[in-house]
Structures are given as C-alpha cells and as structure tokens.
C-alpha cells in the first residue's frame, strides 16, 4: 500500500540512509535540505509499494533518478535544484513517453533523497525500492543490471543546463565508463536518470521497500538514544524483521588514521582504528563505500555486505568524509538480502568486482558468535 | 553547380587534404580507402556548391559528419565502417528530421574524407565547403561557431555501437570539453555529427569549395612533379586564384628532432629543422596541427594561417606522425581566407586560443619579400 513521506520523516531517513551508505553514497544532508525545501510548508511525497499492483502497474514507466560522482565532490558541488528534473525530462524526451513514477537506484547516501526531490518537483510518486539495497560506487552495480534490465538510454544533466544522453545497449559497464568520464568533465558530480523500466521489471529486480528500511533504521537509532538504550542492540533487533536480517558489531575503538584520494572520479582510501584499551587494529578499505573490514588481520566483513562506522555513544552513522582522528566509533556490519548474494550478483558487485581477492562469505557466517540465537 | 567526385579523384584529394591538414587532421589515407571501398566499382558522390541555390536550398537540413580524436590514434583505431552512419542517424533521430546532405566540418586531413564516406554509404550528396578551411584540433574552432551556428545537439558513435548525444546549447566550448572526454573514454577516437544547420546558414558561415580546393592543390603538386616543375612554385601560382591567395616558402632543411606526446586527447609537440648547408634553425610547435613556425627565433607564420611540411623533392605533404629524423623538407605557409582572420574568428582560433602570446600578423605581411609582385 502506498504511504506518504513528509518533511518530518527526513531526519530519520537521512540517518538511516547514511547507515545504508556504508561510508559513501554522499552525505544525505544536502539532499534532505533540497527535499525539505521542495515540500515547503506541507504536503508529502506518495511512496509506492513495488509489490502492490494498485501502486505500480506492470506496464507503468518508472524512471529512476540519482546523483553521480565522488561523494566528497557531491558535497562541495551543490545542485541548484534544476538538474534532477532536467535529467528526467531529457530521458522522457528520448523515450517519447512520460514517467509515471521515479525511484532510487541506490537507497544509501544522498541518492535516497535525490529521487524524492525529483518526485516533489515533478509532482510524481516515488517507488519505495532501489537497485543497490545500500550504496555502491558504479552504475552497473545494480540488481536491475544483474537481473536483465537495460541501463540505457541514460541521461546526464549538468549545472549549466547541458544534457548528455548515452546509449550503450545492454552494456552497463560501458555506460558507467562513458558517463563517469562525462561526470569527471562536469567537475566530478552530475545528475542522472537511467534504467528506465516497466513496473513488472521493478517487481522482478528491485530490492523492495528500502526507503522504508532507511526510515525505520534511522528512527530506531534515534529512539534508542532518546530512551538511553544501546543503539547497536536496537539496530540488531530491528534488522531481524527485515530482508537484511543480521546486524553484527565488528569493532569498538578510535580512529587512528584516514587516507583518502580522489582518482578516476572516485574517492578511494583506508581507515585504521585502534581498540580503546588494547592493541587491536581494525582496517577498512573503501572505494566511495566501505568494501572490507579486517580486525587484527582477519577479514570480518566483505562487500556486498554492509560495513558502517557509527559514533560509539550516539549510534550516529559517519560517512568517510566525516571521519576524523580520535573519533570514538563502532564498526557495524549488516547482511544483505539473498538476491544480492546470488552468483550473478556477486559477479557484478562482489569482492572480485572491486579487485579484492578474498572470497565472499556472508557476514553472519564469518562472525557466528555474534548472531543471537532465535528468541 | 554540382559536380561528381569519383574514386579517381581520391589520391589527389588526399594529397591536398594532407597539405590543408597542416601536419594534423589525421592522415587522409585511411579515409580514402574507406571512400574507395564505399564507391566500389563505379559511381560517385554528388558535391554541392554552397552558393548555388539549385544545389543547396535555404531550408535544407545539412548535417556535417567527422572523426574526432588525436590523429595518431585515429590512424591506429580504424573505423569498421558503421560508425559514421550511426552518428548521422543518431542525430537525425534526435532532430526528428532527415538530413538532405552532409558536409565536412574540416577540409584538412582525414575529415576531408569521412563525410564523403558518410555520403556514399547513406546515398546523400555532400556540400563542397567546411567550417575550418584547414584542420584545427577543437570542435569550437569553426567559422560555423564564429558566425553564430549552434554546434548542438551533437552525436558521437563508437565502434561498439554505443551512441552519445550532447546538448550544451550555444556553448561550443563546453560541447568540445564533454565530447573530448567521451572520445578519450572511447579510446581516443570517435565518429561525430554536429553543427546541424540549414542551407542558409551554410551559405552565410562556411568556407566555400574547400573540397574542390584540396583536390586542386593535390592535383597541382602531382602534375608539377610529373612535369618536373618546382611543386612549391606551382602551388604558389595555383593559390593566387583561390580565396587563400598566398603561398610562402619559409624554410628548407632536414628534420633534426620531433617530440610528440598524447595528452588530454591531443597530440602535442615540437619539430626542429636545420638548414642543409648552414646553421639556420626552424622550430614548429603543434597541437594536432602546426601552430607556429619560427626561423632563427623569428616568427614567420602563425595559426590560423596554414603551416605545412612537404618533401623537398616530390612536394608530398607530410603529417606530424610521418616526420622522421633526417627527412629533407620544405616548410610552406598558406594565407587563410578573410573570414578566418576577422577579430571574432581570431578570438576562437587565433594564436591566443592556443595559449600563444604572439600577435596574429598575416603570413604575407610577415614575409613581404616572398610575395611575387602582380603579373
């Protein structure tokens, strides 16, 4: 059943989307301000349940919208508000058909917010689902692509009003390669519309209700904090009732070092943490998003499972840009839904897709002791 | 009046287009083979005179087609023949209208040939005119742009069948910037269609009859050689009857050094020549095309005037890629038509547009002694 997202939901959603952003995805804060401004003094955005045929008809045209670029640059190069609609309209013109809804391609980070902004500006509903179930750095890293939806044609809109339409047929890697080159030339961030699809394809390939999930997890952290409960334990319990199922605390300690560099249109780097009162060392490597977490040399969690860093006291998730020397944090991992762990899915966004040599083993199997026994 | 270009014209046209390519533009040889193959055992391409209303109606849609990239890479990354038509069709689809003719954007180098190939494959006529009157390295360096024709929308076709449509409005510099980024991602060379325009705009902004000019200059060199006449003197006389007017021999000597590097999608570098029996030194700097020629430290010719290097014995023009240590050559300059020397034209493709500090002074004024007195 459809539901209405209002401005009051945005702080919780931003918090949850930062958690699902796994360090990257771009801070949702800027996107949140854009959505709040588009909603003005009232009203809301109609959110469609992908599994409800009354919400999403099989033949409805759904056009996802998003921001593309290095998260560090997305924060610095703020949209003036016109580009998301321009990207949508440009793709509609190419297709010769109007979209009946927009949708996130990515529920983590700023791209949880950008389709809400597009929806509010265009007067469209937004499907409560996405194609990453978290944040990923590249456009082919979508369950849409894994399960056969064409990523093209795709459109890019720039802050100067320029538009680019790319059609690489079924080759989403080539689309990523070319659009990344364009985005670099546009200063490192751009607005896009891609993977135009029918309602039947949404149902078949999207991770369902991930905006709801972000809202729920963000609210869970806030409520636990307000009630002086342990936010990590609260998150773990909340996740048990979702497709994501397992939450695992991997490490507690202080940020000892953060190295990041912008290259090839991505932010890459490493974070080193040290235990509070011991010699334990935790290392996290990232390409926009956190990819792998090792504790004392042992791999504890690996992409596509989610690896997030949160403030040890408040449970507030922290993006890679927000990490600073001396911060006291918890590293928290979340298991991904089954459709993101299939052999075809792991080929597109498993460890090897990021140049890692470690085999993907689900986080709950790598950390069996931390899984609570069923109640 | 229209005329028919046949396969028999191609060797002379290739020679003349290499001369007009001023070292760059890409060797027309590959393009010549493509055109010859498209023409097969007979037939020809109808060449339209831009100033004849029976050839080019004011409201006719003309879509120029070309290759884009670093000349060195264009030679190595040969078209499989499908891309030029794909670029044309992609732009027609975007415009919702079929082209009535194609046209070169550049009469020097391989782009003298690519629109002929497109014309032969699509069964279209080709306008005998262009927007550079020579070769230039960047897409905004067009009399079309100087005199107000929009460069957009423009299309790019890749060898894998991918297409890209770029619309930067009237901003041809931004179109160049984005399309260059795309071309780099496509391996350094691509096929494009840009500056779609009406017949009335062709008449107002194009340099007329520049394919005829290339053919005429190429034939002039060959005939002089066959008749054991001095090809440089023959060229000088031939030019007197064209819009280009002045041919100037700047230097005779041997190639002492060639330094070239591919950067930012361009080939940049310098050539040093030494006199045969003296200490004279000639230095030429290029960005794809030759930009400036200094003899013993004195500037003798400067972009947009043409600077070409030819074999001292045969008069055969040599591209920058073809230059080798020890070659015995003549450096020959040609004055450009008046419409390429206006203040607005010099702003777009004069010395300052290439980062040079020297003021543009026409080659015939820099070298008054070499201009023959009127007969």
Automatic annotation (TrEMBL), chains A, B:
Gene3D superfamilies named among the record's database cross-references: CV3147-like, CV3147-like domain
Domain S-Me-THD N-terminal as annotated: residue spans: 9-167
S-Me-THD-like C-terminal domain sequence ranges: 172-363
InterPro entries to which the protein is assigned, alphabetical: S-Me-THD-like_C, S-Me-THD_C_sf, S-Me-THD_N, S-Me-THD_N_sf
Name by which UniProt lists this protein: DUF917 domain-containing protein
Species per Swiss-Prot/TrEMBL record: Phytoactinopolyspora halophila
């Amino acid at each position: 059943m459809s539901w209405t997202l209002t401005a009051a939901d945005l702080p919780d959603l931003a918090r949850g989307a930062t958690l699902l952003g796994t360090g990257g995805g771009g801070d949702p804060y800027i996107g949140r301000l854009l959505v709040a401004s588009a909603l003005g003094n009232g009203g809301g955005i109609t959110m469609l349940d992908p599994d409800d045929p009354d919400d999403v008809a099989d033949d409805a045209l759904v056009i996802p919208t998003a921001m593309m670029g290095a998260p560090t640059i997305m924060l610095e190069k703020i949209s003036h508000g016109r580009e998301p609609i321009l990207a949508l309209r440009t793709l509609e013109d190419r297709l010769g058909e109007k979209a009946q809804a927009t949708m996130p391609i990515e529920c983590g980070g700023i791209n949880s917010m950008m389709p809400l902004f597009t929806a509010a500006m265009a007067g469209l509903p937004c499907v409560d689902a996405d194609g990453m179930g978290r944040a990923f750095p590249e456009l082919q890293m979508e369950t849409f692509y894994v399960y056969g939806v064409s990523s093209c044609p795709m459109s890019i809109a720039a802050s100067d009003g320029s538009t680019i339409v790319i059609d690489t047929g079924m080759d989403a890697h080539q689309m990523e390669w070319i659009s990344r080159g364009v985005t670099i030339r546009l200063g490192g961030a751009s607005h896009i519309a891609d993977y135009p699809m029918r309602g039947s394809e949404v149902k078949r390939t999207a991770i369902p209700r991930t905006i709801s999930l972000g809202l729920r997890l963000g609210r869970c952290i806030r409520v636990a904090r307000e009630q002086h409960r342990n936010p990590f334990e609260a998150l773990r319990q909340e996740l048990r009732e979702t497709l994501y199922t397992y939450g695992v605390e991997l490490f507690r300690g202080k940020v000892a070092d953060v190295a990041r560099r912008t290259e090839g249109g991505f932010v890459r780097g490493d974070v080193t943490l040290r235990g509070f009162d011991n010699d334990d060392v935790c290392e996290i490597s990232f390409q926009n998003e956190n990819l792998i977490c090792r504790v004392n040399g042992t791999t504890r969690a690996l992409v596509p499972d989610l690896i997030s860093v949160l403030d040890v006291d408040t449970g507030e998730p922290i993006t890679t840009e927000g990490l600073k020397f001396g911060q006291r944090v918890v590293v928290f991992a979340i298991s991904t839904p089954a459709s993101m762990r299939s052999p075809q899915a792991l080929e597109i966004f498993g460890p090897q897709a990021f140049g890692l040599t470690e085999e993907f083993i689900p986080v709950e199997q790598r950390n069996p002791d931390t899984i609570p026994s069923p109640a």
